[in-house]
Amino acid sequence: MSQQKSPKNIKNSINTAARLSGSAIQMGVVIYLAVKGGQWLDGYFGTEKIFLAICTILGVAISIYLVLQQLKRINN
After folding, report:
1. How many alpha carbons fall within 13 Å on the CB side of residue 17?
2. Measured between alpha carbons, how far is 47 from 23 in angstroms, rounded to an integer?
3. 27-38 pLDDT, tens per residue?
4. Distance of alpha carbon 25 from alpha carbon 19, whole angstroms
5. For the packed helices 50-75 and 7-45, what is the interaxial angle rounded to 10 degrees?
6. In Å, what is the CA distance from 16 to each residue of 10, 60, 63, 66?
7. Is the dihedral of CA 73, 74, 75, 76 positive or negative?
8. Which tops the pLDDT comparison, 9 or 5?
9. What separation, in Å, do the N-terminal and C-terminal C-alpha atoms of the chain show?
10. How far apart are CA 38 and CA 56, in angstroms?
11. Residue-by-residue DSSP string for 18-47
């Protein structure tokens, strides 16, 4: 026999999916802004991709941290 999910479980599943989608968008925006910031700093200081690499790594680290914090909130 198939078990149907209760409306409360369906609502929780949709809510969780929406939060995770928002986290993915947030991650992309943070990394994009970090890359653009690194490119701008390289242009401003006349360096060749030094700040781009630093800012990209920093942006990825920050976005991973933000996603982990969001996952902690979802699980609680």
Report:
1. 6
2. 32
3. 999 999 999 999
4. 10
5. 160
6. 10, 23, 18, 16
7. positive
8. 9
9. 31
10. 7
11. HHHHHHHHHHHHHHHHHHHHHHHHHHHHT-
Main-chain dihedrals φ then ψ at residue 47, nearest 5 degrees: -95, 165
pTM of the model: 0.82
Supply 31's token pair: 């990394």
How far apart, in whole angstroms, are the C-alpha atoms of residue 76 and residue 16?
12
Which tokens in the block code for residue 37? 């910031």
Locate the domains of the chain by residue range.
Answer: 27-75
Rg (CA), the chain: 19
- Which has the closest alpha carbon to 38: 25, 65, 57? 57
